[in-house]
Amino acid sequence: MSRDPARSARPGVLVLRALGLGDLLTAVPALKALRRELPGHELVLAAPGRLAGAASATGLVDRLLPAEAPGRAVPSGLAWSGPPPDLAVDLHGNGPPSHLLLQRLAPRRLFAYAHPGTPGIPGPVWREDEHERERWCRLLAWYGIPADPADLTIPAPAAPSPAPGAVVVHPGADAPARCWPSERFAAVARELREAGHRVVVTAGAGEAVLARRVAERAGLPPSAVLGGTRDVPFDRLAALVADARCVVVGDTGLAHLATALRTPSVILFGPVAPRLWGPPPSPRHRALWHPGDATSARPGDAHGREPDERLLRISVREVLTAVRGLPADRAPRTPGHGSTDRAPARARLRR
């Protein structure tokens, strides 16, 4: 990556969050806090290149530095050029791999959670049982930067929705453990269609077969499926969600997008409790979760190869009842909704 003299004239803040869409959106409160605290800095997000559109849509990131690794691992390196960052922030996880990755860039300051493997880095104590939004806001607060975990909305897109007012059904997830059975998604979609709702089935890259199966069983035409061969372009996906009647989804990135855009949602949880990854308390969002006798917030394997038993306890009737109980009114969808007064407008994200 070539050095941009105009860009390097500003001190840089490098934020490591080389994960998925949901991970990016749960970090929005922390990104807002950094932008408010350091308005004269260039804020660079190290994240997968496929998230460039989402990062730009937050209005908080100046530049995306492509970085990723298989699974949820730490990237082996970062293609950072120019002077060392004024500040590096580890929002990826907690441990020597991510700490040392940033430390190798020789930032003037490094914000991270404390870990015995990197005793030279001060920081707060990591808590396993903490919501992801609160975790990163607490990290910044320890270093003197106030951050509000409830400040999680992003601007609504300017583009029109491809299906205004539709119910969006998203049957996929990154792991089978968080995938509610396709026949149940189809049953929900079919009943909603028969009740007069327009229903759209969304799919990420590689989920075409799953989405087509749900649509076919629900009696929906092939045109009701968006995505599948590849991801739906983020601007189109965000426009769809922003103007949707509601979203029915498992514990995956689209659930966080609905929350960020204030779109009503019904979210199905299984191996991980909603108090760690769910939406904030609101009549707009229903988090369905049946832990049984489990006392842990992580009673199952979020990356397991079979649907989690707690997820399977959620019935079709329960989901339909939750959808019908959502508020009928939607939040205003004016472009820019959710942005902070103190966050300056950002140019189109550069890669």
**Residue-averaged pLDDT:** 91
User: Structural class, from secondary structure content?
Assistant: alpha/beta
CATH class of the largest domain: Alpha Beta
Largest sheet composition: 6 strands, parallel
Helix content percent band: 25-40%
Q: Identify the strand order in the major beta sheet.
A: 8-7-6-9-10-11
Following the backbone from N to C, one meets helices and strands in this order, namely HEHHEHEEHEHEHEHEHEHEHEHH
**Strand composition percent:** 5-15%
Count of separate structural domains = 2
Describe this structure in words.
There is one protein chain. With 351 residues, the chain is α/β, with parallel strands linked by helices. It folds into two domains: 5-142, 3-Layer(aba) Sandwich (Rossmann fold); 167-324, 3-Layer(aba) Sandwich (Rossmann fold). Helix content is 29%, strand content 13%. The chain is built from 13 helices and eleven strands. The strands form two sheets. A six-stranded parallel beta sheet has the order 8-7-6-9-10-11, with helices on both faces. Helix 4 links the parallel strand 2 and strand 3. The longest helix is centred in the middle third of the chain and has 13 residues, at 182-194. The radius of gyration is 20 Å and the shape is globular. It starts with a helix and ends in a 27-residue tail after the last helix.
